[in-house]
Amino acid sequence: MSSEDFPTSPSPKYIPFSEEHESIVSCGAPVDLNLKSLFKDSTIVIASVPFAFSPTCTEEHIPDYIKHIDQFKSEGVDKIIVLSASDPFAMSAWGKALGVKDPANYIIFAHDVDLGIAKALGSDYIADLSKGGLGVRSQRYAGIIENGEIKYLESENELNFTEISSAETLLKRL
């Protein structure tokens, strides 16, 4: 998917990191992430995961992005947004558990409210895990958004983590 506008509604919810709430067991209040405003004159990387704290997401997928922060910055990426169906409190704690404690909030861990973003992108971006008791989640996907327009956006197949959603793939496409 490319050359389309990335959905900006509904607004994801996130808890901005602050030194006041640095501990994993302390957090602030969720706020709306205004994607329309964030996308204006910006390059944003999106990494979507099915679950906060799951093995693949925690041990491989998101650490891949964290490891490459300096490269993303040098390529002109203004922010990285990690999206999930997991609530904003879990997302905030997960970011801290992964060592992301940045008052500038370069990496934002956000809750895709009612999977509104994933649903707007289409069925390839939804994972129905109801048979396993895990409900409907977002599929693992990654994208590059420039000034609100999709430059690159691909979803993984069956929650796998491959080069499709890796940091290296996105860096090559910047």
From TrEMBL:
<keyword id="KW-0560">Oxidoreductase</keyword>
<dbReference type="GO" id="GO:0045454">
    <property type="term" value="P:cell redox homeostasis"/>
</dbReference>
<protein>
    <recommendedName>
        <fullName>Thioredoxin domain-containing protein</fullName>
    </recommendedName>
</protein>
<feature type="active site" description="Cysteine sulfenic acid (-SOH) intermediate">
    <location>
        <position position="57"/>
    </location>
</feature>
<dbReference type="GO" id="GO:0005777">
    <property type="term" value="C:peroxisome"/>
</dbReference>
<dbReference type="GO" id="GO:0034599">
    <property type="term" value="P:cellular response to oxidative stress"/>
</dbReference>
<comment type="function">
    <text>Thiol-specific peroxidase that catalyzes the reduction of hydrogen peroxide and organic hydroperoxides to water and alcohols, respectively. Plays a role in cell protection against oxidative stress by detoxifying peroxides.</text>
</comment>
<dbReference type="Pfam" id="PF08534">
    <property type="entry name" value="Redoxin"/>
</dbReference>
<dbReference type="GO" id="GO:0008379">
    <property type="term" value="F:thioredoxin peroxidase activity"/>
</dbReference>
<dbReference type="GO" id="GO:0042744">
    <property type="term" value="P:hydrogen peroxide catabolic process"/>
</dbReference>
<keyword id="KW-0575">Peroxidase</keyword>
<comment type="similarity">
    <text>Belongs to the peroxiredoxin family. Prx5 subfamily.</text>
</comment>
<keyword id="KW-0049">Antioxidant</keyword>
<dbReference type="InterPro" id="IPR013766">
    <property type="entry name" value="Thioredoxin_domain"/>
</dbReference>
<dbReference type="InterPro" id="IPR036249">
    <property type="entry name" value="Thioredoxin-like_sf"/>
</dbReference>
<keyword id="KW-0676">Redox-active center</keyword>
<dbReference type="GO" id="GO:0005739">
    <property type="term" value="C:mitochondrion"/>
</dbReference>
<dbReference type="InterPro" id="IPR013740">
    <property type="entry name" value="Redoxin"/>
</dbReference>
<feature type="domain" description="Thioredoxin">
    <location>
        <begin position="8"/>
        <end position="174"/>
    </location>
</feature>
<dbReference type="InterPro" id="IPR037944">
    <property type="entry name" value="PRX5-like"/>
</dbReference>
